Amino acid sequence: MTQFDPGDNSASIISVTDRVRPLSIGMPVVAVHFLGDQAAFVGAEENVALVNKEGEISQVAVHSGGILCVASDGARLVMGGDDGKLVALDKKGEITLLATDPKRRWIDNVALHPDGAVAWSAGKTAFVRSGKAEDKSFEVPSTVGGLAFAPKGLRLAIAHYNGVTLWFPNMAANAEVLEWAGSHLGVVFSPDNKFLVTAMHEPALHGWRLADHRHMRMTGYPGRVRSMSWSAGGKALATSGADTVIMWPFASKDGPMGKEPAMLAPLQARVAVVACHPRQDILAAGYSDGTILMVRLNDGAEILVRKNGTAAVSALGWNAKGTLLAFAAEDGDAGLLEL
């Protein structure tokens, strides 16, 4: 593995920093997604900044307060806010109000299904809207911590205290509950639909093999895991939360059970955000000291995208083709890299 000396970036590692188009978004950024080849930088409050390939920035007001959650399918962004509204933004910059919580509760989780269905939550209640059917809702025992649609079929994972509920909105059958003590926040299905993984409130992940509900404990993190990303093809799950990128293997029927994770791109800073390339075995990692590295998964080779010495990286995202990487730090300093 290429060792990385934070004191002398230029001599020790291949760099593409001179190819980055710097952007000043002018607001703290919580996420970045691509709508076609436009990068959409989602602010912590009120606005989304749309940036085209030429670097031209246009601000769109989407909420009248904090933006608490966002999901994207490449055609639209769907966001929830502390104004109790669920809002969609499309490639043209047009805004659609999808829902308003009747009690004006915070909408703090959102998920999108490839067929266009949308799920969101407020308090203990999860909602699903699919096609022209009326909205369906499901209440779990405690505040919803995360939402994810299964890649096949209309099934929603609802993370909460002491486990995850698997709900089929179009079926009368009882929901399944996967139990594990503690507070479950982020939740993801593996792309092959065989595993479910949650990020815990404690510094750990927990997983289940869906065929038999067998548990998978993924521990040893010094900090909470706030970012997870599946590699192209779903063979590995990249995670933040340590001073290296932790990659859990999911290629076999047992997933990571009994296996050690790979540890890539060690730095004297905590990994804050990870984003795997959509088509190749490459990932981008953003760190708490502002560094961004691109890392090749098969041999750990690193390329420097952004030097350290600034605010923590808060957002990373690839376009669908994997030809553009967008990033932002907590202070609104951002950039676009064309590969």
Report what the structure shows:
- Helix content is 1%, strand content 53%.
- It is mainly β and 339 residues long.
- It has a seven-stranded antiparallel β-sheet with strand order 3-4-5-6-7-8-9, with no helix packed on it. The protein has a six-stranded antiparallel β-sheet with strand order 14-15-16-17-18-19, with no helix packed on it. Strands 1-27-26-25-24 form a five-stranded mixed β-sheet.
- The chain contains one helix and 30 strands.
- It has one domain (9-338): Methylamine Dehydrogenase, Chain H (7 Propeller), CATH 2.130.10.
Kindly state the number of beta strands.
30
| CATH architecture assignment | 7 Propeller
- Number of distinct helices: 1
CATH topology: Methylamine Dehydrogenase, Chain H
What is the distance, rounded to the nearest whole angstrom, between the alpha carbons of the first and last residues? 22 Å
Domain Anaphase-promoting complex subunit 4-like WD40: 278-337
Keywords: Cell projection, Cilium, Repeat, WD repeat
Main location: other
Protein name: WD-40 repeat-containing protein
